[in-house]
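Request: Mind sharing a record?
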Amino acid sequence: MSSLASPVLVGRTAELQVLIDAMTRPPAVVLVEGEAGIGKTRLVHAALSRLVSGDRSVLLGYCHQIREPFPYGPVVEALREIAGRLPAIEALNPVTGALRDYLPELARALPPSPRRPNDPRAERHRLFRAMRALLAAVGPALLVIEDLHWADDGTRDLLRFLADQPPRGLTVVATYRREDLGTPGLPLGHTYRHPPGTTSLVIPLRPLDVPGVNSLARALLNRSDLPAPFVARLHERTAGIPFVVEEVVRSLPDAEGPDALDRVGVPLLLREAMAERMAGLSAAAVSAVQAAAVLRLPVGEQLIAAVGGDSTGLGEALRVGVLREHPGGRYGFRHALAQQAVYDAIPGPDRRPAHERAMTALAAMEPPPLVQLAYHSRQAGDMEAWLRHGRAAADRAAALGDTALAVEVLEGMLADPDLPEPDRGPLALALSRLAATGLSHQRVVRLLRRLLRDDFLAREVRGEARLNLGLVLCNQAGDSAAGRPEIMAAVTELHDRPTLAARGWASLALPGWGTESLATHEEWMARAEALVATAGTPELAAAVLANRASFEMTIGSPDAFTVAATLPVADPSTAVRREAARGYCNLHDAATMLGHYAAAERFGKEGRRLAAETGAQYPAYLVDVSTVRRNWLTGRWDGLRDRAATLAELATETPLIAVDVWLVLGLLALATGEWEEAAGHLRGAGMDAPDARFLPVVVAAAGGLVELHLARGALESAVTEAEQAVARLRRKGVWVWGAYLIPPAVTAFARAGRLREGAELVAEFAGGIAGRLAPAAHAALDHARGALAADRRPADAAGFFARSREAYAALPQPYAAARAGEGEARARLALGDRHATSALAELAERFGALGATHDAARCRRALRDIGAESPLPRGRKGTAGALSQREREVARLVALGRTNREIADVLFLSTRTVETHVATVLRKLGVRSRTEVAPPV
């Protein structure tokens, strides 16, 4: 079955190089080992394709599972390919004439047949010598024998003879499956010890890891990227076996969500392959394999026996590789599709009793595996047991903090068309409650919307289900435009359940979402607190309290830390502590935005602890993404781009909650002069639909876009962006969020000559943050005042910038401090202060150390303009051909596809200077074209 080979070779770079080296350095014997579909044939042919054409004879032979009697068939088949490479007859060893009867196609090119000896053993030895002599005559040669595990004894003996005494120019390559060998561990039939001077290698091929599966699937689908959950599920279902990956991918519908893989089923070729393997087993082995297929998961021998297998059959199934041993003395299939293929082939009347036996055996375990019991109950048709075990499994998982498993169990039950109608409502409510704490949401949203649309739910549960749907849409999906109307409708439906309605009002009260004013949010929060005040529901009370704490911290209230200290972190109830976890994770985000970094770190640590303890995945993810923003603000930029990109990949199903990540990626790109990348990331941070996204991040992203327009000289666009963003902030009325918008907005107004508007904005900002615990906003206020005074009142500007620099440094915000310091230095230069030159040179070094190469280049340009120089850091000593700092900056922009003119604009250089740097980069990297330049690490 050498056809089980992937058409795309991935993840085999080391193995490929080893094989090519052996092929080009005869004599050599190479055995390529691996299970069916692992890519043995593809590896061999990839190596052959890389050899110099015509440099050596390539002879291919194939062993077949079903073969007609023909001695030494695979080798004889291979030798038929050498007709055009044979020397003259007189140059051939006379013993090669013994091959005339075996190779009639070559009879005219071979010496006369010698007289046959009477001893069959002597005849066989002469035949082996003839084949060896013929291979020596056409050397150098590659003899490739595929599927050695199916070779007859004669072929094995012949190959062993050639391997023991290989001609100097011969390389023998054989592929085989260890599990199908007649004698385990001996592909050549006997122990082989290679002779001196002969290379002997065994190249084992292992399954692909997740990145390898990703590369293979992308190549097969001709896609540049694939969703991470899809790739993870594909790896899980195929065990990383290339052939199985290929068959599954080729069977996919257009969608590439993880659910699509479950709908594919078992590809036909894989189904046929498993049927072929089962056909060669004894009845006892078939029973053991079928029992393992019914049980699905790797299990112990006793459980397989209880369902219908026995030790003898299990041992045979293991020897031939249909089943494999897993850690802990458990036995199961290589991958899920193999299990499914065998299970589907079991006749229906035989499955039900097998599942009943599995139920009996599993129920006797302590504690009983409830998820497995629910599965086998459903397959056995016992609906009452299925519902009982399914509910119990979800409850246990939730109690243990495994929210993802609880959601998965309930989703599966609700998706079953045979679920009794009266049971849908309770299960839907349970699912919606749990979904609010997890990350995965798409299937939950689809299920709840269908249940609400089709009127499956009773009136008394519709409001709660709708409320939870709205919460999931607002939080996990990050889609407040869809979620908030659902919450609004839910609080109306919950008029007779006021304490539950309080949860909805408390959610609507968080000012980061929606277009309502802060006063409206305050009214809604008060309404929520009034409704929950008389209720005896600790979980709902904790939910409202968590939102109150989040509300206070978000607006920079003086009471924020006092309210935060009242969160019930030690409550015995998991549900109550889960609300406290959500509160702490929100506090981490809000404190980060305000500039309380030490407090944010404490909140984040406590939030992560509680989230892990209670299974609250969503709040824990929020801490991760807002930590990326905190790292940006506090100058921890080393490796930050990679960390942010990794978190973005985790949010493929929930991209809208990763807005902090896109904000940071955009600001990093802005600091290095990657204009197009910066624009794309900042729009992904909420600027695509600013009124429907998380407003504190939207405001910061708008500030980044204003900076981007200013850097590119697009003053009109900068002013327009600033006007729109300020209008949103003014409508909401939470001015502490303006810390990252007001300074660039005021700068844009000042450069446009609209000083009056700039002054009014500064005054409005000052009034809005007065009395607020928002150190970042107060530092930004002085920065904005400095920007307003920069052109006309340099002495005032220098003072404002100095105070801002000191405030930013105390937070700490080193990048913002350097930006304020640059404003101060430029103001002092305008005043004729000669010490400002050294300050500007020092700032260039600080920007460079952070990684803000565009800012560093701007400072150096200012120094050049006044006749001062600030030399760039030199490359590492002793590294021949190493790029200098400037050359690394140029190389990075070249790799991004920037023209010389664009690079010159970013780095404040002349186009001619850039041309020189580009030529040097190409020379040092040893490449001929700009397209071959990779971003420097």
Q: What stands out?
A: Residues 140 and 169 are 4 Å apart (CA to CA). The longest helix spans residues 574-594. The chain is about 60% helix and 5% strand. The longest strand covers residues 170-176.
